[in-house]
Write a structure and sequence with these properties.
Elements lengths: L1 H5 L10 H4 L1 H8 L3 H34 L3 H30 L5 H22 L3 H27 L7 H31 L5 H14 L3 H17 L1
Helix pairs in contact: 4-5, 4-7, 4-8, 4-9, 4-10, 5-7, 6-7, 6-9, 8-9
């Protein structure tokens, strides 16, 4: 209901820095920005797929393969999320302030962090010791914090003030549908396809993470292309 109401929200016009920079104001109203904006929303929805899959299935990996108890993996994974997740967001914000002076700085930072997400997932798939698997999961959680922490700034920077409510609603809807809907469905389908061995759940988790990572360069490429087209038309 809240998401539906946000679609009706339009901020009143007011003087801002965007109004004093005519070309930026025209960009915020240009139809060229819409494909890149939709790709960004879909990209952050794919990030939610990885985040929810790790939160739901990683504890099961430790229970199935290494016979950890729920209390053991719950405490260990909670510490990882608390330290690496929160620390990653803080560092992402600090680095974001540095790179935001560049036109595509935030998007480039988020795209670069995907390498760490994929690297951590691949490491999770090949290690044989539970402690090493926790280390791999920590790398993934740290790098996942970058798109999660920077997503609002990236989206709202490309949106006119009277469109922000609708964009927030659309982004929240996409993250919910993709993260809680597509993520578990893909995991279940992959596990059925790979078989019933204990390590199949870990393989499915690695595969869904790698599949979701493909989307990361797309918003950056689309943003560079659309902004160059816009500049050429001015």
């Amino acid at each position: 209901m809240v998401i539906a109401l946000l679609f009706l929200v339009a901020e009143p016009p007011r003087t801002s820095d965007n109004d004093r920079i005519p070309i930026h104001g025209r960009w915020l109203r240009s139809p060229l920005r819409r494909p890149a904006l939709l790709l960004k929303i879909a990209s952050f929805g794919a990030t939610a797929v990885v985040t929810y899959n790790y939160a739901i299935w990683l504890p099961s990996v430790f229970v199935r393969e290494w016979w950890w108890t729920i209390g053991e993996i719950g405490g260990a994974y909670g510490i990882i999320v608390l330290c690496c997740g929160a620390g990653g967001m803080l560092i992402a914000g600090a680095l974001g302030n540095v790179v935001s002076v560049h036109r595509h700085g935030l998007l480039t930072l988020v795209t670069t962090s995907t390498a760490g997400v994929v690297g951590g997932a691949v490491a999770l798939g090949v290690v044989s010791e539970p402690v090493a698997a926790l280390g791999a999961a920590a790398i993934t959680m740290f790098c996942l914090a970058f798109p999660i922490g920077l997503a609002p700034a990236i989206l709202l920077a490309e949106v006119a003030q009277d469109e922000r409510g609708r964009v927030v609603a659309l982004g929240s809807l996409a993250i919910t549908i993709l993260g809680l809907g597509a993520g578990p469905t893909c995991m279940a389908a992959l596990e059925l396809h790979l078989g019933t061995a204990p390590q199949t759940l870990r393989s499915a988790l690695v595969a869904t993470t790698a599949a979701a990572a493909y989307r990361s360069p797309l918003p950056l490429l689309a943003s560079r292309f659309t902004t160059s087209r816009f500049v050429q038309e001015q």
